[in-house]
Amino acid sequence: MAERQATLAGGCFWCTEAVFKDVIGVSKVESGYIGGHVADPSYKAVCGGDTGHAEAIRVTFDPEVISYGELLDLFFHTHDPTQLNRQGNDVGTQYRSAVFPHDAEQEAEARAAIRRAAADWPAPIVTTIEPLGQWYPAEDYHQDYWEGEGQRNPYCLAVIPPKLAKLRKSYAHRVKGSATV
Known about the structure:
Blueprint: E1 4-10, H1 13-20, E2 26-34, H2 43-47, E3 54-61, H3 68-77, E4 86-87, E5 90-91, E6 97-99, H4 104-118, E7 128-129, E8 136-137, H5 154-170
Parallel strand pairs: 6-7
Antiparallel strand pairs: 1-3, 1-6, 2-3, 2-8, 4-5
């Protein structure tokens, strides 16, 4: 079976990218922007909150190794899907929790994953399911951010290691062997 893609927004794309790059069956994670009304937005414009875009990741994965439903379960476990238009100190619609299904099957899986996640969270899930729309890759310096600049960035050092630890604790069977915090 050919590789598939999942498009997810769970706050800062540096943080979600770092998590999904450690997952077995994932061959690529690209940071970018989706869900807005401005063509070819810049990071500065998206951060301003006026373009309507979410910071998101596009995950390329092998469905024979990890299913879309399993990716969604990881997504709901490694960010807070109960925070409306924010993740921690990042506030604004650009940091919303959203799933952008690539087809009807992914949309049905997303609805099922939200129901599963609701059992794990004390507050209601506010993650939206939005139309796929146009994908805009983020600027080059945002790609693979954790492996480079991120490990010197105080924000990333505060946010990413706890997410990776949560991934490794709850989904150890899904973590690539060479992954390190």
